[in-house]
């Protein structure tokens, strides 16, 4: 059961790169990063140990089934893996990027709808997946 001190890892799987985020169920963000897909499992295992992760919330789209099986067989015993609806999360992550990192200088003059984040936002998608899971559980 998720409580106010539970730690959740969000995982946005991709073929080439993956987004990772670690957040307590009280919404305190501890980590977020985009990592190469080939190193994602090792990074997830390390983060599970480092932050005492109880649950992995994985996006249900790109290669989710294969990742789900790989994670359930390679994570420490108390860690649960759940699929979370990932629809429109990339669009939401692009908007969230600008909330987290407001544009500066001349970039502020670019209309909001035309701004493109200067880096991949897969880690922000992972944050959104955690938030969606918490909302689904009535904790958000």
How would you describe this protein?
With 140 residues, this protein is α/β, with parallel strands linked by helices. Helices cover 36% and strands 23% of the residues. It contains 4 helices and 5 strands. The chain has helices at 40-51, 64-74, 89-100, 122-136, and strands at 7-12, 17-24, 29-36, 55-59, 80-84. The chain has a 5-stranded mixed sheet with strand order 3-2-1-4-5. A hairpin with a 4-residue loop joins strand 2 (17-24) and strand 3. Helix 3 (89-100) crosses helix 4. The longest helix is centred in the C-terminal third of the chain and has 15 residues, at 122-136. The radius of gyration is 15 Å and the shape is globular.
Largest sheet: 5 strands, mixed
In percent terms, what proportion of residues is strand? 15-25%
What value does the Rg take, in angstroms?
15 Å
Q: Between the first and last Cα atoms, what is the distance in angstroms?
A: 15 Å
Number of strands: 5
Low-confidence stretches: none
Secondary-structure-based class equals alpha/beta
Query: How much helix is in the residues?
Result: 25-40%
Please write the string of helix (H) and strand (E) elements.
EEEHEHEHH
Biggest sheet: strand arrangement = 3-2-1-4-5
Shape: globular
Number of helices: 4
Query: How confident is the prediction overall: mean pLDDT?
Result: 92
């Amino acid at each position: 059961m998720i409580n106010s001190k539970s730690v959740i890892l969000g995982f946005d799987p991709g073929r080439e790169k993956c987004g990772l985020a670690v957040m307590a169920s009280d919404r305190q963000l501890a980590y977020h990063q985009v990592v190469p897909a080939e190193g994602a499992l090792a990074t997830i295992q390390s983060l599970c140990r480092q932050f005492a992760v109880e649950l992995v919330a994985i996006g249900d789209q790109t290669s989710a089934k294969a990742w789900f099986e790989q994670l359930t067989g390679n994570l420490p015993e108390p860690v649960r893996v759940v699929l979370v609806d990932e629809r429109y999360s990339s669009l939401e992550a692009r908007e969230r990027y600008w909330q987290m990192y407001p544009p500066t200088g001349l970039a502020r003059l670019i209309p909001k709808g035309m701004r493109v984040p200067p880096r991949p936002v897969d880690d922000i998608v992972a944050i959104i997946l955690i938030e969606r899971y918490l909302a689904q559980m009535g904790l958000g």
